[in-house]
């Protein structure tokens, strides 16, 4: 997918580097007033180039969102639960 471009009625509310639970690589999280946008940097097998893969999830299918602070590991966890899947992001401090 190409890089994400904002719609005229869309505004960035929050942007930060995150790690998706169960993955080693870091991603970029962008919360807008309409969507949750995750940009992953994936290594291509051809000459080890990094490619951007952007995923946009509309807020209208969000069931609930929860945050959790883990003091001993010094990380914040952001959990999104949708009607079809669950996504847990670890915020990089």
If you had to describe this structure to a student in words, what would you say it looks like?
The structure is a single chain. The protein is built from no helices and 7 strands. The protein has 93 residues and is mainly beta. It has a 7-stranded antiparallel beta sheet, with no helix packed on it.
In terms of topology, how is this protein built?
Layout: E1 12-20, E2 26-32, E3 35-43, E4 50-58, E5 62-70, E6 75-82, E7 86-91
Antiparallel strand pairs: 1-2, 1-7, 2-3, 3-4, 5-6, 6-7
Regions with pLDDT < 50 over 5+ consecutive residues? none
SSE-based structural type: mainly beta
Could you tell me the mean pLDDT? 78
Please give the alpha-carbon distance between the first and last residues: 28 Å
Radius of gyration from the alpha-carbon trace, in angstroms: 14 Å
Shape: globular
Secondary structure: helix percent: under 10%
- How much beta, percentage-wise? over 45%
Q: Outline the biggest β-sheet.
A: 7 strands, antiparallel
Strands side by side in the biggest sheet: 4-3-2-1-7-6-5
Provide the succession of SSEs. Answer: EEEEEEE
E-strand count: 7
Q: Can you count the helices?
A: 0
What labels describe this entry?
single chain, 93 residues, mainly beta, globular, 61% strand, seven-stranded antiparallel β-sheet
Question: Concise description?
Answer:
The protein is globular, with a radius of gyration of 14 Å. It has no helices and seven strands.
């Amino acid at each position: 997918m190409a890089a994400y471009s904002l719609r005229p009625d869309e505004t960035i509310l929050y942007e930060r580097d995150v790690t998706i639970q169960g993955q080693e690589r870091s991603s970029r999280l962008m919360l807008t007033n309409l969507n949750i946008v995750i940009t992953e940097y994936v290594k291509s097998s051809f000459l080890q180039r990094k490619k951007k893969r952007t995923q946009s999830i509309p807020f209208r299918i969000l069931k609930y969102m929860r945050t959790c602070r883990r003091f001993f590991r010094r990380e914040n966890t952001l959990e999104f639960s949708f009607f079809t899947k669950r996504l847990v992001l670890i915020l990089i401090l």
